[in-house]
Amino acid sequence: MTGPETSVENKKPHKSRRLPRAARAEYGLRQLARMALYSQTANALRRAVRNDRKSIQAGLSPPPDERVTRDLRALFSLDIKNVEQGYYPMPRDNDGSLFKQISRVRDFFADLPEANRRRRDDIHDEVSEEKRDKRPLYYMQNFHYQTDGWMSEDSARIYDIQVESLFGGSANVMRRQCLVPLAKYVAGKDQRNVRVLDIACGTGRFIDAACCAFPRLDIHGIDLSEEYLHEARKQVGRRPNIKFSLAKGEALPFADDNFDCVVTTFLFHELPPAIRRSVAGEIGRVLKSGGIYIHLDSLQLGDDPDYDGLLEGFPRYFHEPYHGTYVRENLVELFGAAGLVEQDTMPLFISKLNVLEKA
Questions:
Q1: Regarding the domain with residue range 179-358, which homologous superfamily does it belong to in the CATH classification?
Q2: Are the C-beta atoms of residues 192 and 139 closer than 8 Å to each other?
Q3: 305 class by beta-carbon count within 10 Å (0-12 exposed, 13-18 middle, 19+ buried)
Q4: Secondary structure (3-state) at 8
Q5: What's the pLDDT tens digit per position in 120-156?
Q6: Contact at 8 Å (CB) between 354 and 331?
Q7: C-alpha angle 94-141-282 in degrees, rounded to nearest 5
Q8: Terminal CA-CA length for the chain
Q9: DSSP labels for 12-49?
């Protein structure tokens, strides 16, 4: 069997081939089941927020339901189209057993009362004191008002439930779109000689998807949370070509011109403006000439006016202290200062994919 999902040396993705009806139906049923699960947790979250008078005053203005439904359908259609074009194999979301999913949803609900208390009282500094001197101050917050911030096994265990609920079950789908520019870059190359860095890899969802599509890539994931790295190792499993380490994006422990590809997914909107520039500079430093940087993050103001109200209100509902400046950030200037030139950009539901090259 050849193609980007298994071959060591990829000539190019397969020619487009329509999947059998049974395969398409199976994909649709699996994604509908995921959306049903996460829509229930999302509804519970929305009900909790609606009961918060302060959040009501924030004035969140989401796009019409029919627009959201249409965009979600387009995103899932793109996902299956990418499979048919050979960019990656039929996706496996790797959510674990039904028992595991139910257990994590239960943990998510158990954390809601405390998260709602912090939201109501605007408290976001209840993170373990013992770890504060080892991490940047901006990092030691209750992002999303979640208990422990990023700094506990409980947080790592419920993170994916939380994010998928916020995105209507589409977070993995959006991450998978990063595999398309990676597939194009890898085509014609020996995977074993392609080095990829995932900055702020979190629970390893992107790395897991990349391993399925390109099993012999040399991938290094870094994060500032030992607990999230532990969860990522469990997600990916033991693979000699996959490495994880504790490090921060603004001070990467790697030599210059070290990686063929650098990836970040939903990182930059959680960074203060000055740190964004430091991380961008580090990406430009460790990336090889001709290498690519794949950037997936939130839509920005003006990308789609229908979503501007949602972007304005989002950081008020969920503690995202730097999201408001990110949606106004000039990405061309930010990454251009690091020697990165934009090659492509594409909206993906409520996120946006940018592909840049180091000149």
A1: Vaccinia Virus protein VP39 (3.40.50.150)
A2: no
A3: exposed
A4: coil
A5: 888 898 887 666 667 899 999 999 888 999 999 999 9
A6: yes
A7: 75
A8: 35
A9: SPPPP-PPPHHHHHHHHHHHHHHHHHHHHHHHHHHHHH
Which 3 state secondary structure label does DSSP give 55?
helix
264 class by beta-carbon count within 10 Å (0-12 exposed, 13-18 middle, 19+ buried): buried
pTM recorded for the entire structure: 0.91
Extract the runs of DSSP E, i.e. beta strands, from the chain: 195-199, 218-223, 242-246, 259-265, 287-298, 340-348, 351-358
Closest to 279 (Cα-Cα) out of 202, 220, 200, 196: 200
- If you write DSSP's letter for every residue of 63-127 in order, what string do you get? PPHHHHHHHHHHHHHHHHHHHHTTSSPSP------HHHHHHHHHHHHHHHHHHHHHHHHT----S
Pairing of strands 259-265, 195-199: parallel
- Cα four-point dihedral sign 31, 36, 41, 46: positive
Angle at 187 (CA atoms; ends 186, 188), nearest 5 degrees: 110
Tokens in use for 278?
A: 């430091």
189, 10 contact by CB (below 8 A): yes
**Strand pairing partners for 218?**
195
pLDDT in tens, 96-125: 887 888 888 888 888 888 888 888 888 898
